[in-house]
Amino acid sequence: MKKKVMKKLLFTFAFMVFAVVTPSVKVSASSYNYDFFKNPVPSSEGLSYKATYNDKAILAADGSDEKLTFDVLSDMEIVGEKIFVIDSRANATDKVHLQSSSSKVDIVRRSGIYILNSDMKWENQFYQFEINDTVRQKLDEFYKRVDYTTAPEAVTATQLNATSVAARAPYTTIWVPNENGQEELLVETLEDKTEIYEKGDWKLGLFLYGATGISVTNYGGETFIYVADTGNARVLKLAYDEANNSLIAVDVYLTPDDETVFFQFDEDIKLTTKKVFQPTKVTVDRYNRVYVISDSVYEGILEYNTDSSFNRFLGKNLVTANPLKAFWGKIFSETQLNLIEDDLPPSFTNIQMAPNGFIYATALSASSTGAQSQKIKAINTSGADILRRNGYVTPDGDVKYLNENSKNRDMITGASTFVAIAVNEDGIYSAVDTVRGRIFTYDSEGNLLYISGEKGSLSNSINTPSAIAYLSKPGQPEYVVVLDKGSKTLMLYETTEFGRLVNSATQMYADNYIIESEDIWREVVKMNSNYELGYVGIGKSILRLAMNAELRWNTLDVTKFMADNNISELTKDNVKLLVNEETKENTIEINGVKFEIDELKENKDRAVEISFDNEEKTISWRYAVATEEEKMDFYKEAMSYFKLGRNATYYSKAYQFYRDGILKENFALIMGGGVVIVIAYIAYMVTKKVYTKKLNKLNNKEEESDV
Amino acid sequence: MSKFWLKTKSILKVILEDYIKFPLRLLTSPIQGFTEFKDEKKGKLSVAVVFLLLASLLAIIRFNNDGIIINTNNPEKFNSVTILIYTIFPPIILAVANWTITTLMNGKGKMKEIMTLAGYCYFPTIIISFVNLILSNVLIESEVQFITLLNILGYVLMGYMIFMGMIVIHEYGVFQTIATVLLTILATLVILFIALLIFDLSQQIYGFFYSLYDEIVTRFF
After folding, report:
1. pTM value?
2. Which of A5, A266, A422, A433 is positioned for an S-S bond with A416, CB 3.0–4.6 A?
């Protein structure tokens, strides 16, 4: 008896120890995904952190010791293997030579363009840009409106540093060092009073003022850089000459001539109620049409024609109606009305021209709660949003998050806010969220593929992202570069094995290699059993297999067989498929020697297809047509995978075929059964009627006899 | 043997009469049916309770066994007690609210009758729910409209039954019944409001005592 009690106690104690010691499973914040029920589930990482580059870690490509100094990294574009970064340098003050002054003067916010190569070494940095005659003419024409008459040689630092755009000099003369130059200029006085002179020329040129957007095109070998020169209310087109290391402004896109919206430089800027054109981001399509978003402009994206004239507004965001606000608007007084926020359409945060020709735009959420908003849009030439949103969650970032009014102060609250987007050739796009520092990657159908990155001030976490771009180097996995304004760094993310598999399977599906993608999806599911997209992918390929009525290829290695039989190579002539006409048996002969395959013998009455690969030394065969039973098995298998992936639409598709098959198989039984039941029922009714009639008659007779 | 058979037969007959034939009569000829329901005591509270339990049982079964085409329930969130409470409480609260209103408006219905009616009105939805459970597993996504149609039919029949029942039980006219229905909804809201208030208050009291306990524990132990 006592022993039993002891045993019980010991067992309880052991269990308690086990319960305490067993570590609780924790899910890393950086690797999760959303399932069908919009719950976060642990997932494999699609992008993994590789490296961080700050200005001190970026070496010069030519081997010199000179370093870049990052200030406010605003935008980035990757074309080919070159990374173009624009630094708006909002806090910077530079000592610059001006023709009007004998000594160096302070110039503020002189933005710079850095050009880096794919090894993360800087090749060039530009702070001043020569202009050609077209640009000069356009600027002269435009600045006539403000009676701007200062000659470029006489521009002073005050005119270049003016905070008001109307008072600022549009262009000036810049010192261009040149060994064969005409003039000599004192450029530096060292501490031992040695004076250094430099040869060069004064040329017409300009500085940027707080520029925040960059876009680069390389159609037909010529590289053009488009810069949204925010502070100067213009977009510049710069021609990049790699050989001469020069960036020359060849065109300029000025304030749009829409007088209802924009300040036209023809009245006092302090009194105007119109908006000053402040281009923040710029993107260009392959026909050199320029698209610009401007600060506090709610009319949409601005489109410029190829001749740099303003064309139209595109893709306006809509306001969500707020009935409660409309109600209070009827009741409140003027002062009270001024206190509540206006219902403005959400403004765009970034635009990016995708390889497929659509403008991918990121916008703030339409409502303060962030629900049902369209934060990512794919805008076509007619301004309509054609982004597909077929995933379990819409491409709007995090679905589950703490409300902004949450009392939990340790956590980041509020919905995701996308600030930049990158689109690759397969239509897969990654958008970076500034609230939680996460990169959300979606496919062209709108499925959430993977989420990576986290917010923080550590070197491997995203602080305040400002741009994102794909960087692909031949023979290496695809990288994602994130430009971080907060930590003044470029961060490199590498596509993991998982991410690579998911990307390639998605691409194969888009390219209609659906059956072939099955193996890749199976790998994906092996790595991450929570991945519902993987199950759906497997299901889709099985369903396609069944619908095509062709069985997959079976590949066999014949290296040993060839060595045994002294066969040197596989050719069209020596690999033969023989069909015995009597027994209908399929045999494969290589160079006259039979190659035995058991499965072929067992299924002799079906047509077989073969192919071979001489380099790999393999022979592949498949049945041309699947039998009805096999098809049914496939439909059933596909259904089970769709159920795992929770895809009702495709489940229905597979189930419809399956149901039809069952009905077809059992048609005789069902119809026969139905007919038998109907006949039996009729017979029962008839006999009942007859019987009751007889009974009634009998009863009546009895009653009569009684009487 | 024959005695047992006779007994089973009579039980089956009662079940057929009480659980199927009479509710069907309520649907097909409501005025006569509900007069029998009230005057001949044909409406039984036991049957109403069984109907309510059946409805909640079906809701519990359907949570996990509905076909994928209409099922968006998360199996991890399955809680049979919650489903039971959510199906049983609304009719009870509505019945109580209706009673409070109709006693003030010269309704002839008793509390027991109203409760019984609340149970009986689940009859069409139980049958349609069962049919839908099967249909959702054999239909495909483009045929979901059938299920939706049946659902609507079920709720319409339910509303019809409640409406006719109220007319007969309380001996009201049509417009008076509509007014009572609206007032019942209002009364339900008041009841829910008071219930929430009590719930919140009790939670605050609990929180107060808990913080007191917390303070004592951290200070003196």
Report:
1. 0.81
2. A433
